[in-house]
Amino acid sequence: MTRGEDALAALQRRRPEWAPWLTLVEEVVREGAGSAWDPVVRAIQPGRNGSPLLDRAAIPVPDALVSDLLARLVRLARQGGTPKLSALDAAISTRVDATSMFSASLRQDHGYVADVAAELGTDAEALQAVAALLAVPFLQACQRKWGASVPEGWVEGYCPVCASWPAFAEVRGIERTRCLRCGRCGAAWLAHTLRCPFCATDDHDELLTLMPQKPGTNAVIEACKRCRGYLKTFTKLQGCPPSEVMLEDLASVELDVAALEQGYSRPMATNLLSQGT
Questions:
Q1: What is the pLDDT along the chain (277 residues), one digit of tens a residue?
Q2: DSSP code for 151
Q3: 3-class DSSP state for residue 9?
Q4: Are 132 and 249 in contact (CB under 8 A)?
Q5: pTM of the prediction?
Q6: By CB count within 10 A, which of 2, 146, 151, 154 is most buried?
């Protein structure tokens, strides 16, 4: 059993009520660990400063790969047993333009997904959940191919590979190197200390740290009073593998709940990827 499988199994034991959703996550983790998407990703060309690597790429993604993954996720969702996920009947896999849904997943275009759900008469929240996972294996392949091409000195708050906001930060080792981690592609990049990744403010009066009540934890919540965003931050010896970032993000949901209760939230999307990506 791989570390990712171990992490997923541990999460399933801790959160049995998440079983229907974690079945979909397990399928995506398995797909992302395979090699089917690697040949799709081409070498990247240098682009303008501040531009995520994916925004420079014109990648013809095979329809068959996308359609097959969407069909599997819809089938697993339908079998999940919850009313919302079960509402995604098998017809969706043939009535939905899989390529357009994949493109919307890349851009985190929630409006497009909501419109499709309304047109189909299916649950928008359930379709959003499936759509959010659809591009993850491709994005992880991008990270494997392009990770070494991330510009030195990248200081943006969003992912240099796929433009997503960070899922959490890691303060690593005795050097206490601070890295942001992408929950979609798994990328890691260096981050400024005492600066909000979402609105870039470094006004110390606008930044605060929320301490969990659980003793002995290695985690805190860093929040910004200006934009009301928050970031989970873990102190650890080394960063987790890219394939496990999404699982570690899910496993620390108690911190998300605590931040939400204090009136903080995660931004939904950066809107930095062009429509043609």
A1: 566 677 788 888 888 888 888 999 999 999 998 889 999 998 765 555 668 888 867 788 899 999 999 989 988 887 876 777 777 765 565 678 899 999 999 999 999 999 998 888 888 888 898 999 999 999 999 999 998 888 888 889 999 999 999 999 999 988 899 999 999 999 999 998 899 999 999 999 999 999 877 766 789 999 999 999 999 999 999 999 998 999 999 999 999 999 999 999 999 888 777 654 4
A2: P
A3: helix
A4: no
A5: 0.91
A6: 146
d(CA 121, CA 65): 26
Residues in the chain: 277
What residue segments make up the domains of the chain, in order of their start?
3-140, 150-261
The rounded distance, in Å, linking the Cα atoms of 50 and 52 is: 6
245 DSSP assignment? H
Q: Do 124 and 16 meet the contact criterion of CB atoms below 8 Å apart?
A: no
**What type of residue is 221?**
I
Which residue type, as a one-letter code, is found at position 54?
L
CATH class given for the domain over 150-261:
alpha beta
